[in-house]
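FYI - complex with 3-hydroxybutanoyl-coenzyme A, inputs then prediction.
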Amino acid sequence: METKKVAVIGAGLMGSGIAQACAQAGYEVVNIDTFASAIEKAKENITKLFERKVAKGSMTEDKKKEILGRLNYSENFEDVKGAFLVVEAVPEKIEIKKDTFKRIDAVADPETIIVSNTSGLSISEIASVTNRPQKVMGAHFFYPAPVMKLLELVRGLVTSDETYDTVKEFAAAIGKTTVDAPEFPGFMVNRILVPMQNEAAFMVMEGSKPEDVDNAMKLGCNHPMGPIELTDFVGIDTMLATMTGLYNGFHDSKYRPCPLLETMVKSGMLGKKSGQGFYKYDEKGNKIGSSF
Ligand code: 3HC
């Protein structure tokens, strides 16, 4: 059987993880990013991750080589050609998403489906800049994308049934369970999860220790990670953008972003990826202390 090709645009935390998940499932993958530095970082991260898996015995050396052999990187949008599906995972800003969709639409094969990994922006608005809005929908992955089992499917106003069915089949092929989420800010998970993380940030701003807030939810509710740890893990900038999207989208003050998050982003404290967020991290990503 011919190996199908998937293109993933954006080699940040989400894009590189989505590319990995697709390559692990047997797809030929090209992960495209216009920043060479993002590609270098993605390659370095996956190499480290796979080396850890081989060392711990959860992946063989042969499997590692096989998967990495299917995972290609490029700085050129032209390389989306031949892909049956393009997954967009660029920063969560509507203008960047629209510009990226225009660029993909200009070069992708006419039958290619384009999905956005947006965590809450309007799919219909993103689709409107393309000449194929019926072939556009939302497919929202969770971090870390290779591990988390859920894929939220979000249809735009004109997404066709054929597009939806193909994306649902793709989700099953990469081992994800889908839910149909409404096309409103935050979709399903983030509308519940992110206000909790935002409230946790308010508590730190009011003087609670990050460890106490995290332990409260881990030990009191069996969450695998506390809300503060999770915010550092996903990225303070990403979480703030999602919260701002809820606030602007619903025009409801209950979604007001915590000012501490805004100050942290302005100061470059973006969480684990920048070495400091609510906690401090060493170069291997191990937690070494608290910032508050
Ligand atoms: N990327 C890829 N794989 C990873 C990974 C990463 N960042 N982190 C861990 N893994 C893999 C490991 O390689 C390991 O695989 P293996 O079993 O084949 O060796 C497996 O996951 C388990 O890893 P560990 O044993 O090291 O760690 P844990 O058992 O503690 O699990 C976790 C790690 C799955 C991340 C767990 O802590 C967890 O479930 N955390 C909560 C995650 C969560 O809530 N995500 C949602 C975020 S919100 C979101 O994504 C919304 C978006 O819009 C931003």
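The two ends are 55 Å apart (CA to CA). The chain has eleven helices and ten strands.
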